[in-house]
Amino acid sequence: MTTHIGEAILRQARARSTGTTLVAVDGAGGSGKSTLAATLARQLGDCAVVHGDDFYRPMPDAERERLNPEQGYRRYFDWERLADQVLRPLRAGEAARYQKYDWATGRLGAWETVARGGVVLVEGVYTARPELADFYDLTVFVDTPRETCLDRLRARGENSAEWITRWRAAEDHYLRTTRPAERATLVVAGA
């Protein structure tokens, strides 16, 4: 599976010949996006990985808890910051510099730099949303059965059952209304 995806990415990179090849790796939480991105990065060599989790939007817990699924889709992930700090600079031929979300403090924390050139994989839920689609040369959607994803999220032990239900409702809204699998260049079965 990853060989096929890696070859598609390399074809796209060769077609560009200069600049940075931007690839979105999207799918539901627990689908295997991070694992796929790490495997591809090892295969491709000259490749950076930007994690969507670094673009979680800081906000008070009480405010986050009041969001309905549509509002969660629109506000959990700070896609504007991803566009401004990573995608626009790389598309313009410049290095990117972005501030990561610090999960321990609930605030923005350390700065990361992504060099221009080569391949940059941007992995995470919501990374292929329509507002970002034009930045990417290729989009990959990891399609994994819902129950498998939920089992993985529960097994991680990072979030309460209530939060997983709330998060998944926002993801379901995103998947249903924006149809990232239908818009993707490649759809792969999650492991």
Automatic annotation (TrEMBL):
<dbReference type="InterPro" id="IPR027417">
    <property type="entry name" value="P-loop_NTPase"/>
</dbReference>
<protein>
    <submittedName>
        <fullName>AAA family ATPase</fullName>
    </submittedName>
</protein>
<dbReference type="Pfam" id="PF13671">
    <property type="entry name" value="AAA_33"/>
</dbReference>
